[in-house]
Amino acid sequence: MSKPFDYSKWDNIELSDDEEDCHPNIEKESWFRMKHRSRVEREENEEEDKKKINQAMARDQLRIDELTRMIKKIECADPNDSDDDLEDVDGMKAEVKELEER
C-alpha cells in the first residue's frame, strides 16, 4: 500500500497580500488609487461594450422581424406577380440568415 501524502510542509506557508505587488519607490496609497481607477475604467469600458452589443443585437432582431414579415407578405401574395419579388425573397432570406449567424 502506498504512503499517504504528507502535507505538513505547507502548514507554515507565508502568503503574500496585494500590498506586496507595489514597487518600494511608489506610495502604497497612490498605487491603490491607480489600481482602483484602472479597474473602474475597465469596468466602465466593459459596460459600454455590453450596451453597444445589446443595441446591435436589438437592431438586428428588428431587421430580422421586418424581413420575416415582408417575406411572408410576398409569399402570401399572388404567385402571378413579377419575378422581381422572388429575387427579393431570396435576397431577404439570405440577409435573415446572415443576421441570425451574428
TrEMBL record:
GO MF assignments: heat shock protein binding; protein kinase binding; protein-folding chaperone binding; unfolded protein binding
Biological process terms in GO annotation: protein folding; protein stabilization
Residue spans of biased composition, Acidic residues class: 78-89
UniProt superkingdom: Eukaryota
GO CC list: cytoplasm
Region (Disordered): 76-102
Stretches assigned to the Cdc37 N-terminal domain: 4-102
Residue ranges with Basic and acidic residues bias: 90-102
Protein name (Swiss-Prot/TrEMBL): Cdc37 N-terminal domain-containing protein
Species annotation: Triparma retinervis
